[in-house]
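Hi D.,

Good news: the full-assembly prediction came through. Inputs first.
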Amino acid sequence: MKGNIIVGQSGGPTAVINSSLAGVYKTAKDRGVTKVYGMLNGIQGFLEERYIDLSDYIKNDLDIELLKRTPSAFLGACRYKLPDIHKDKELYEKIFEILNKLDIECFVYIGGNDSMDTIKKLSDYAIVTGQTQRFIGVPKTIDNDLALTDHTPGYGSAAKYIGTATKEVIRDSMGLVYNKGLVTVIEVMGRNAGWLTGATALAKGEDCEGPDFIYLPEVIFDLDNFLEKVGKQLAKKKSVIAAVSEGIKIADGRYVCELSANVEYVDAFGHKQLTGAANYLANRLSEKFGCKTRTVELSTLQRSAAHLSSLVDINEAFQVGGAAVKAADEGDTGKMVVIDRVSDDPYQCSTGIYDVHKISNVEKVVPREWITKDGSNVTEEFLDYVRPLIQGDLAPITVGGIPRHLTMIRHK
Amino acid sequence: MKGNIIVGQSGGPTAVINSSLAGVYKTAKDRGVTKVYGMLNGIQGFLEERYIDLSDYIKNDLDIELLKRTPSAFLGACRYKLPDIHKDKELYEKIFEILNKLDIECFVYIGGNDSMDTIKKLSDYAIVTGQTQRFIGVPKTIDNDLALTDHTPGYGSAAKYIGTATKEVIRDSMGLVYNKGLVTVIEVMGRNAGWLTGATALAKGEDCEGPDFIYLPEVIFDLDNFLEKVGKQLAKKKSVIAAVSEGIKIADGRYVCELSANVEYVDAFGHKQLTGAANYLANRLSEKFGCKTRTVELSTLQRSAAHLSSLVDINEAFQVGGAAVKAADEGDTGKMVVIDRVSDDPYQCSTGIYDVHKISNVEKVVPREWITKDGSNVTEEFLDYVRPLIQGDLAPITVGGIPRHLTMIRHK
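Then the structure:
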């Protein structure tokens, strides 16, 4: 590659999004690219000409190792949707002006569904206007809802955290016994896809029964049936655990969290920010059974707990970053790197590359057959799919007992 | 020791309460004790004659290692307060009848302030009635509020988790930028003592600014001042972090969480269960500044995240368990094992033993001089005290990517 590279990060944080950034940087440098720029806050910052030369921040191999272990976009991210090309040609002209000024040959964007839309539009514009820059997408989302790739980097670490935290919450809930029992409702991220919520089942093993009930957004949530099931379980055991997706909906299409009128925020893509399903259900349970209830919202840690990242996930995130540079170098554009599962047992994956037009704006949900018939748990097939993705650890590099990250603050 | 030992666990879970149990068991066996019984759900289960022979569950050295890494009371705990002796002599007679039946020479109780009250009453009763059993307390509480001991086992691991999680939440909050800024309010356990909330400052380092504000329950909370401070900070940076104790109170004595009428539960010791301070403050901030807000309740994971335990803490928990058996063997009763800090740098501690009458029902809070003058952060002295307690890791023993615990389920 004769020109330079610019890389950006977009959308919600993951624990390994910077491992992909490290993969882009390392592979670009190994291939002799002169400058690897990082746009700050994605395409939004790029439009304001806010970018850095990554070599000012990544100075040696130890920095690469720290970057792999640093959660949340090192470069900052954005939720910015490019307008359709015909609606704002000037904006596209401005983007390409900046690209030309920096002598960019390859534009890499690490993100989810919405980010792939950016890659699609920019590569379309380049082709239509006869320009030669290449645009490659690198998948990233804890939600695991991107089509065509077996799974997305970020999901494995989130699943490992969720499985581990669920197991520890279950242990905690068994410490004290309450007269009328205790129901713990764990709320997990995932608006339309239950990949994250299903990962609570990873807590199950020879030493732990796992959650009693797991409700994914793929199945309509029946409140009466839920209350009845939990009631029956409370008669059998003193501590009952239910894991629910933030995105579970009742038959009339309303989110469970909307029943308690707790919808706060709509993002630039028109997505509602959902929270409160667990609290609503806990209140209903406590009213009906007089039991003690507790809610655990796994909060932003489920996407940022890099101290518990999966080694498989970190490595794959690094690989897809590198594969993006390789693909651009070989002339690809308008493509996203994907992960193909070559074998289940032993687990083996390789990277591939697909046309981004086939990927963007399609959400991959959990297949119905991986959810139990009554809709209150996941099957062994689901677990067989997830387990390989959570294997191994990359020990945090700690200073004073706390994980060290690579951040821009160090260099101020 | 010619007789047997019985050991129980009481009060809220910690990540290392079972390391103390392992220390009791191992030391007892090394000293040739025939039977080590475990009472199920503490003194409450003991009164129902629910107990196990621990050797049925701890079968080898690997089980000891698993037990050290298993959070929340292996034996189950209780919140049961013994009545005063003169109010229910029959109850005490029943307890000693069971002790005699099992040929118990030493009764070890692992717990916090309330549990030391149990040790005090039982040892008083034995002395008054001329009986020879020995009663020893082993300190345990994430709250670190026990008097006379430098710190309590369980606190170091909680502090390590809180510091790490806070740092990851701070990283996460910097990923996306919001027009009017983002304020993240982290709510931490600790009703009257700010040891846990202060531990959020551990996030601070060369690579992280740490929380902007930290509010401990030791200082009266001034809402207007808080809003003003956060407003000024929002003018300077796009992501502001405030950590607050669940127990912060305003000048008239009301808890901040009570301002939103969210008090749910009073336990057997008359303690209110507090939650909701962060939500209340986030709502006020969002009203006043139109900023985006996020609340992170560290939930029960702050006391149960054994996957991130401090090695120092695990080892000290093990040592105080062993020291309890040794003390009883040497004739002590009505005592609690304590940790004495011999040296700060290098950190060195040894175990000691104190009269439980001096310990029970006294809450140790954070010294005022370890909190900044304006009451919105902790000082370097606070951090110097905490840092040695969070050092080192004991890698989880994982099966299928998830930590394995020692639980009774395995043996069903």
